[in-house]
Amino acid sequence: HTVVVIEHNLDLIKCADYIIDLGPEGGDRGGEIVAAGSPEKIVASPHSITGRYLKPYLK
After folding, report:
1. How far apart are CA 13 and CA 18, in angstroms?
2. Average pLDDT per consecutive 10 residues, the chain (59 residues; last block may be shorter)
3. Which of 20, 21, 29, 57 measures 20 to 30 Å from 39, CA to CA?
């Protein structure tokens, strides 16, 4: 089964099997896939702003 969740809560995001990080910003400057994969892969992506904030939650 698959569940699609649109979320900003990092406690929930860290539990995901697969994340699609959209950005790099919102509105006209967003909507592009900047990173995709496991939480660890998002944290390792230099283009992911989400990854910067998610990193402390994975420790």
Report:
1. 9
2. 94 97 93 97 97 97
3. 29
